[in-house]
Amino acid sequence: MSVHVSKRRLAPADIAALKGQRPIVSLTAYTTPIAKLMDPHVDFMLVGDSLGMVLYGLDSTVGVTLEMMIAHGQAVMRGSSNACVVVDLPFGAYQESKEQAFRSAARVLKETGCSAIKLEGGAEMAETVAFLTQRGIPVLGHVGLMPQLINTTGGYRSLGRSDKEADKIRRDAKAIDDAGAFAIVVEGTVEPLAREISGQLRAPTIGIGASPACDGQVLVVDDALGIFTDFKPRFVKHFANLAPLMSEAFAAYAEEVKARTFPGQEHTFQVKSKTA
Q: For the whole prediction, is pTM greater than 0.85?
């Protein structure tokens, strides 16, 4: 009798175990079609609160809600079967207390089926990270530039140039590592510091605007595909340039509709004539 064995989706522990083995591959994902295309090629997909800016046109990630993250987390889970899926906790869903963070994270895991959550914060969030991990919720940490704090930091810029900034990022990274995060995103941090931190932490670091020496890399998928064109940060590389192709396709569609060349007869459903 044959037994069907389904392939197991990568888990947070699998991601953690890749440190020192090979670079970890990650991209953000927000929709089912993109998740399907991405799934064979990445170790984990991050359903990032960056969706607020790239999908909803918000000025920052601060306006993203837990309901938005859950809806897109569900969509990405439907489109994937191999990659580990991590969902961001949005601003206001975890900062109040570790108990609030647990309730938000538990809801995300239950309603999406994802494997882990991500939250921003350094030493001040270490107790929360430990609280979650001790209760069965894997956490992807996030230090360095933290977009949810944009209203207090005053803008998007690279960090770690001054001794004060560098020392804070070091302390933050160590605190989240000690708290049990399975991996830590290091964003917008000057290269030598990100390299140093990557060599010191137990958990793998996932760089974005950091260092090639990080244990893995993540990019916003719309940046990688050249779809988001409002601005291009220094750390972004367009692995495709889809925006012009999409614009050309929309223009061609509009032209054919106006000229009545689309739809053609081959795109319509005909009624067969009745024979006597």
A: yes
